[in-house]
Amino acid sequence: MLNKTSATTPLENVDWDDILETLQEQRCVLFLGQGACEAPGGGDIQSALSQWLDSDNPDHPYIHVHNPDGFFLFKKRFHNRKVIAGMKQFYSRPFPEAEAQFARITRIPFSMIFSLTPDNILARTFDVMGYDYQPDFYFRKRKASEHFEKPNKQKPLIYNLLGNIEEPESLVLTHSDFFDYLESVFEANSMNQRLKDELEQMERFIFLGLPYEKWYFQLLLRVLALHTEKFKDIERFALREFENPQLQKLYTEEFKIEFFPARTPEFIGELYRQCETNGLLKPLTAPDPAEAAMPDPSPAAMKELIASAETDEALQLLKVFLARRKPRSHPLANDLVVLRNQHHLLRQRDMRGTIDSRDLSVENNQITARLLELIDQAQNL
What we know:
Radius of gyration: 21 Å
Number of strands: 9
Strand content: 5-15%
Distance between the termini: 57 Å
Strand order of the largest sheet: 5-6-4-1-7-8-9
């Protein structure tokens, strides 16, 4: 008998048994778009980013046009660096609404999660919740790393499909970038072949918050089909109420997506409940007893570790130091989460060989400098 929601809702006809079965078998992939991530204070993240960048200002020093489709036209080519710096600041802020939503996702046993946004908010939430994961992203026109670790529900893959904010050259920000991206896909060397093989084995895709109304999204679905020969056989589930019936007909008939008129928080909440009822949620991580027994770390000890190139250990000590000074340490703790995530991603890029040694040195120095700043600020708590 099918698991149903307990009351009449837009999700009452969802085949929860099948979704749970594909989750258990690690054959269910989650795709997240910008609509699945609320901006700080609520609302649309694209609008919030535009407001943060002041991109609609006709006198903007760097942006000529910020198109409705989300792509930029910069006044000069090198101005993209200035805008990327602003984007990085935007995504480094706390996103409490999105993080509360993503905290539930961290406990649902997905083995692969693909994001169509360039941020690391989901990865940061995995860090905060204490769950392991492996980050990766599509770097157009670059050969994929040969390193590959098979994703699983204990260590899922979080894959930024359109580049990652920590690697500016990977970002798809302009129409030119997007067509470079398509060319890279057709050349078929920027995604690890074993990852493609994993996608071939999947039986269900769940799409949340994706930009169905954007002209390029249909191309992205075809791109996904290029990487997955069995795409036509994979069940596709999505949430959306279309104002344009022709658009809904296109996605249901051309791309075989089954739509349910519900909101993302409603679906994630019900999926979480179904997993909880059936004993599928990952257990909450227990506090580290070694941290609890640790003497109160001193800022001087943290700096000594940094001087010995033991950045991981210094980050860990600062985490413990701030945890013992809540709630006044909360703003610094948020900054530390971002920094730890950046360090984690940098190590992964180094391990996969996707970063030049000179860039690695520069970014390591930037992380070290920021860590020293946080330690100095923590001394004043």
